[in-house]
Amino acid sequence: MTSTYGEHPIVIGVDSFGDMTVGGDGSLLSQPQNIRELVAEGVLAEESSLDFFGLGEHHIEEMPLSAPDLVLAAIAARTSRIHLGSAVTVLSSDDPVRVFQRYATLDALSSGRAEVILGRGSSVESFPLFGFDLADYDRLFEEKLELFARLRAEKPVTWSGTTRAAMPGLQVYPRTAGGSLPTWVGVGGNPASVVRAARHGFSLMLAIIGGNPARFARLSELYREATAQAGLAPLPIGVHSPGHIAATDEQAKEEYWPTYETFMLDARRQRGFPKITREYFEHEVEYGSLYVGSPETVARRVVKTMTALGAGRFDLKYGMGPMPHATLMENIRLFGTEVAPRVREQLRTR
């Protein structure tokens, strides 16, 4: 159902990083089965009237989703309405030309429903895998994003830099159905990244995974100022945050907490995250950026966040660590059929 909030249509979606799932006995399922289940989850997202389904690139055993565009192509063949995209594509360790070609091909297969969210890579396992030096982290993204902006115009590209071969007036194919691939830049809090996205005319996706989301209002305002200074019409702002929905608040928290705790303990060992307690979890659910609860609770909190940031889009990152596929499917169903209608209605009446 299409409705508007501000200058742009309201978009409510879900995305996944391809976290491994477990069977009825609690044992991990195989990676091939896990990937096939993502296709079923994408199909259910459309059946539940959601607007977007995204898959985020990862290259680790716990998240073996290394080629999300292929999985999205399988979903495209079984759907007709929902938009499909990355969440995110790690542009810094990829070739912008190949990224554009893959998602332009997805756009053809889906009859114009593809989009891409580009990121620098908060998870950096792809850098050593593909031979990139983390010392070049900023330069890789800045150069490749500038090239992608030129590719998106779908005209012959003349470009030179230090991160790939030069392009002396080369045309890249295929072209997209609409003449320009919808492109977002995922930002986790860096003001320079916000300004860069605005300068290139890319929509802004705020990745808010902890703390009070209202603190990102300064980035939303900075983005609006930067797009105006670039002479551009207002561009969409979206929010990506984790969460889980069940029939009641207590059920949602009891389903989510065990795997959330495990995931955060692993993140602490690997990336130096702070220690996570149940008290911290409860605080994040009540005041922070974990959208965990009943449909009524989650809808209220989503509306509060979107209003505070002036965002017209909200993507729920479902699943956190090894959860049962059936639980994830119910989460998607409830978010689409119970949460999304409440969000759209409450935003329309504001």
Q: What composes the largest sheet?
A: 8 strands, parallel, barrel
Shape: globular
Would you count the extended β strands for me? 16
CATH class: Alpha Beta
Structural class: alpha/beta
> Roughly how many Å apart are the termini?
18 Å
Helix content: 40-55%
Task: Write structural notes for this entry.
- By secondary structure, the protein is an alpha/beta fold.
- The chain has a single domain, classed as Alpha-Beta Barrel (TIM Barrel), CATH 3.20.20.30.
- It contains eleven helices and 16 strands.
- The strands form four sheets. The protein has an eight-stranded parallel β-barrel with strand order 3-5-6-8-11-12-13-15, surrounded by eight helices.
- Helix 3 links the parallel strand 7 and strand 8.
Task: Label this structure with key terms.
350 residues, alpha/beta, TIM Barrel, eight-stranded parallel barrel, two-stranded antiparallel sheet, globular
State the gist of this model.
The protein is of the alpha/beta class. The chain has helices at 31-47, 68-76, 96-109, 126-129, 137-152, 191-199, 217-229, 249-271, 278-287, 295-309, 325-348; strands at 4-5, 8-9, 11-16, 21-22, 52-55, 83-86, 89-90, 114-119, 157-159, 167-170, 183-187, 203-207, 237-245, 291-293, 313-318, 323-324.
Outline the secondary-structure elements:
Layout: E1 4-5, E2 8-9, E3 11-16, E4 21-22, H1 31-47, E5 52-55, H2 68-76, E6 83-86, E7 89-90, H3 96-109, E8 114-119, H4 126-129, H5 137-152, E9 157-159, E10 167-170, E11 183-187, H6 191-199, E12 203-207, H7 217-229, E13 237-245, H8 249-271, H9 278-287, E14 291-293, H10 295-309, E15 313-318, E16 323-324, H11 325-348
Parallel strand pairs: 3-5, 3-15, 4-16, 5-6, 6-8, 7-8, 8-11, 11-12, 12-13, 13-14, 13-15
Antiparallel strand pairs: 1-2, 9-10
